[in-house]
Structure formats: structure tokens, C-alpha cells
Amino acid sequence: MTDDLADRLDRVESELAIQRLVHEYCHGADKQDLRRFSAVWHPDAVWAPSAGHRLDGLDAIRAGIKAEWQKYQQMHHWTANLVITLDGDRASGEADTEFSVQFLDGSWVRGGGTYRDVYTRRDGIWRITYREVSTSFDIDRLPPGASSPA
């Protein structure tokens, strides 16, 4: 019984830690907080933010998010429907996302897609090892001065 309880507790704690990673990713990106954004990744992680675009390693991932920040006045991400599959110190996850971004000219775009993730626990800490982003829809760009579509 004690082993069963320990396994169940580990599963709950792992799922909560992984959920936190998914949310910290969005907060770090949206608030342009490099420390917060960087903390969700293992040093050898891979981020595939769009089809045909892959960033290998934390330095490349940091450079990638900094480049994104140069394109937008602001961005906002929301995630939902997160499903986590645990397998020891490895897990996979899938979550839907919706985002709104304001470009430098003041125009807005809203869209959404899916995050497909791999997480690993190293030295007791869960982090993202792999994140692939697929965009399944974009809504037409709104002109400068239009209110946010969020």
C-alpha cells in the first residue's frame, strides 16, 4: 500500500509540474521574461516553433524567442486541453493554444494550434525536452488602431 501511495503521489506531482511548465512557457514568452522562458527547457532541448524551423539547444531557443520579441509589440498565449502521458521520468503532452499578437505597425493577428511536447525529469526536475508547434488557424490581420481580438 505504501508503494502504491508513493507512486500515485509521484504521478500527481509530476503532472502538476508539467502543467506548470506549459503555463510558464506562455508567461515567459508573453512577458518577455527570458529567465522565466529559459527555465522550462533542458539545455539540450529542441523547439520547433513552426514547420521547417527547428532550434536545437537552449542558446538557439533563447535567440529564437528574442527574435520573436523583435517582431511584436505584444503577444498573448493561452493553453487548454492539456493531456499528459507519463512513463517514468519521461512524459509526452499535447495542448491546444490560442494566441493574439500585435505587430510593430499596430495591427493584430489571432490564431491557434497545438503544442506536442516531450518532457523529461532529470535530477528530480521536469523540463521540456522537445516542443513542436503546429498552427491550425489564423484569423485575418486587423488594421492598426483596431482593438485586440482577444
TrEMBL record:
Which Pfam families did the record assign? SnoaL_4
The SnoaL-like domain, residue ranges: 11-131
InterPro entries in alphabetical order: NTF2-like_dom_sf (IPR032710), SnoaL-like (IPR037401)
Q: Which domain of life is it from?
A: Bacteria
Q: What is this protein called?
A: SnoaL-like domain-containing protein
Phylogenetic classification of the source organism: Bacteria, Bacillati, Actinomycetota, Actinomycetes, Pseudonocardiales
